[in-house]
Design a protein that fits this description.
The protein is 54% helix and 15% strand. By secondary structure, it is an alpha+beta fold. A 6-stranded mixed β-sheet has the order 6-7-5-4-15-14, covered by helices on one side. A 6-stranded mixed β-sheet has the order 8-9-10-11-13-12, covered by helices on one side. It has a 3-stranded antiparallel β-sheet with strand order 1-2-3. Helix 2 packs antiparallel against helix 13 and helix 3 crosses helix 4.
Length: 612
């Protein structure tokens, strides 16, 4: 059983990584396409899970498990080794298909006296996933430097293959749960989404509790991860010590989610811990039902396949509709209902596995928190300082490949004192789950202020070496329909200047929307001097919305820098630094070949001097 549990844990970690790789490459590649088309394409990819029935029928229990596992592991490894967006997308689709088949066949293909190892493997995988993300500062293993990523995944793949080989010699038969167990199995993919959006998402828990918004030093994400680690550990120990009660599990899922999404200090932290513990219990409950001999794997494959379609539906509803929380609530409700209906699980964690899971769940985040360097005290404001505005493209380069290392290097070379960032992602599944702001702030040694525009985990940020006060977010008017993103302007007082950081509407026909957004900025600016407005305005110098700043008395401080995009012919200037009561000098950007390695925008840098 230990070999099968190891097989299950590593396979589940691979599956989590493949889901993130697919969703991130998919949204980066097809962003802007009609939502209906995107939904159909995503559904088609997840519907490949139904082909597992054909694999199982043609190959039988042992060979089907071996072949699906080999396809799954090989595609996961190759997508890690690849650094090309289209190749990653294709390989992640293959890896997902193989992973779906492997998951269903492993659950259904049982030895005569064995229960499914997934009831034990999924709780352990949740703990390992949280620990790995905390250890690597939310940067997925597949996105680490090429030698390190390939080395880690290669070792994991070899262990995965070895563990699988230990399980294959035993005689295996097709088994399936009864009706109540099938209902639990159906919502297992929803449990994965609940974990991605809350139960193992440290940034989400921290921000929901009011941490990570600033102005403050880094460590908010590590606090959230540590709280979740305690919850996962408590769930693992409970899974060893006490029999799992479906009613208690369902109530804990509902209560934890309600408290987390209440967005209350301390209360949401407690909710995150409860939801994490409940996710461990739910994993054992949904997958731990006793199984009975059957003639094929069809029932398990079809049930899980429909579960993956529910997953893609709720995940698409959440992300495509700008962090639409009811989609997550539906997934959470289904998990609670599945736990309530499912029979009491036959599988429990033994003491060694429970202790190991608890140590991993608590130890990884705690080590990350302890290792986070303390920042020096903020520097006193200076009359002259360097300002950079940068659209970081959610932490991806112009080729849609994760680029946090390149972003850090690009920014550090220019050494700005104040940094205005747009498209800041902080833990979305569709952005590889990385917290770009925490990574940049920690490695640049700067404090930050962040108030999101979309949900809790996406927006603009200001980083500064100077004290920051008077942080506020002004939301722009919400436009009808879903094609316009919710947006706003983040105001911060730093370097004795009022700084507004913004990202205006990006649609080519959105000039009237942008004009109203600029008027909102000017109205909220309220004639305060000195003041700076910086960001990606998605308009060229001759557009009406740009001229509104001139009419309000602002000077274009970065006019000498030239184009700031990296794509298109000709390239355009859409990023600006406007100032009043200040003087700008040495405005410049970067060569396009250099900039494309970090983002699809070039940064705009200006030396600012306050007028007396």
């Amino acid at each position: 059983m230990i070999g099968e549990v190891t097989f299950g844990v590593i396979g589940l970690l691979f599956l989590f990584a493949d889901i993130r790789t697919f969703t991130s490459t998919f949204q980066q590649t097809f962003f802007g396409a009609p939502s209906t088309n995107l939904a159909l394409m995503a559904t088609a990819v997840f519907a490949t899970s139904f082909l597992g029935a054909l694999v199982a029928w043609r190959l039988g229990p042992r060979r089907a498990l071996g072949v699906s596992g080999l396809v799954f592991a090989a595609a996961t490894f190759l997508s890690t080794a690849s650094r090309n967006n289209w190749t990653d997308l294709a390989l992640s689709v293959v890896a997902l298909a193989g992973g779906f088949w492997w998951l269903a066949i492993l659950h259904s293909s049982r030895t005569a006296d064995g229960t499914s190892p997934l009831a034990r493997a999924l709780p352990i995988a949740f703990a390992c996933d949280l620990a790995l993300r905390a250890t690597f500062r939310t940067v997925p293993i597949v996105d680490l430097s090429w030698p390190l990523a390939v080395g880690i995944v290669l070792v994991a793949m070899l262990i995965f293959v070895a563990a699988g080989l230990t399980a294959l010699p035993a005689e295996r038969h097709w088994m399936s749960p009864g009706l109540r167990g099938a209902i639990g199995l159906l919502v297992v993919p929803c449990l994965v989404l609940v974990a991605e959006t809350g139960a193992t998402n440290g940034a989400q828990v921290a921000i929901a509790a009011g941490l990570g918004l600033g102005p403050e030093p880094v460590r908010a994400a590590q606090i959230g991860e540590s709280v979740l680690g305690v919850g996962l550990a408590a769930g693992a120990l409970a899974l060893w010590r006490y029999p799992v009660r479906p009613v208690i599990t369902a109530a804990a899922v509902a209560a934890g989610a309600a408290l987390l999404w209440a967005h209350l200090p301390l209360v949401s932290l407690a909710g995150g811990a409860i939801l994490a513990a409940a996710s461990v219990l739910a994993a054992a409950t949904l997958l731990g039902a006793r199984q009975h001999p059957t003639r094929s794997a069809l029932a398990v494959v079809v049930t899980l396949s429909f579960g993956w379609l529910i997953f893609v539906g709720t995940a698409f509803g959440y992300y495509a509709f700008w962090a639409y929380l009811p989609a997550v609530w539906v997934a959470t409700a289904l998990v609670a209902l599945g736990a309530l209906v499912a029979p009491s699980p036959a599988a429990r964690l033994g003491l060694p596995l429970a202790l190991a899971t608890a140590i991993v769940a608590v130890g990884g985040p705690l080590a990350a928190f302890t290792a986070t360097p303390a920042l020096a005290e903020p520097e006193p404001a200076r009359v002259t300082f360097r300002l950079m505005t940068y659209n970081i493209h959610q932490g991806f380069d112009a080729g849609q490949i994760p680029s946090l290392d390149s972003l850090v290097d690009t920014i550090a070379r220019e050494s700005p004192d104040v940094l205005c960032l747009q498209e800041v992602a902080r833990g979305w599944m569709i952005d590889e789950q990385h917290d770009a702001l925490s990574v940049l702030a920690e490695r640049l040694g700067m404090r930050y202020a962040f108030i999101p525009n979309i949900g809790d985990l996406y927006g603009n940020a200001v980083l500064s070496r100077f004290p920051m006060t008077d942080v506020r977010l002004v939301h722009y008017a919400v436009e009808p329909g879903i094609k316009h993103q919710p947006r706003g302007v983040l105001f911060v007082r730093t370097a004795d200047v009022l700084l507004g950081c913004t990202h205006l509407d990006e649609l080519s026909d959105g000039t009237f929307v942008r004009q109203e957004q600029v008027r909102t900025i000017i109205r909220e600016w309220a004639q305060t001097t000195p003041a700076i407005i910086a960001g990606d305005l998605n308009a060229t110098p001759g557009d009406i919305e740009i001229r509104l700043f001139n009419e309000a008395g602002f000077d274009d401080l970065g006019a000498a820098a030239g184009p700031t995009t990296t794509m298109g012919d000709p390239q355009k200037r859409v990023d600006y630094i406007w100032g009043i009561g200040v003087i700008g000098s040495q405005g410049h950007s970067l060569d396009v070949d250099v900039a494309m390695k970090a983002s699809d925008h070039r940064p705009l840098i200006v030396n600012i001097t306050r007028q007396k």
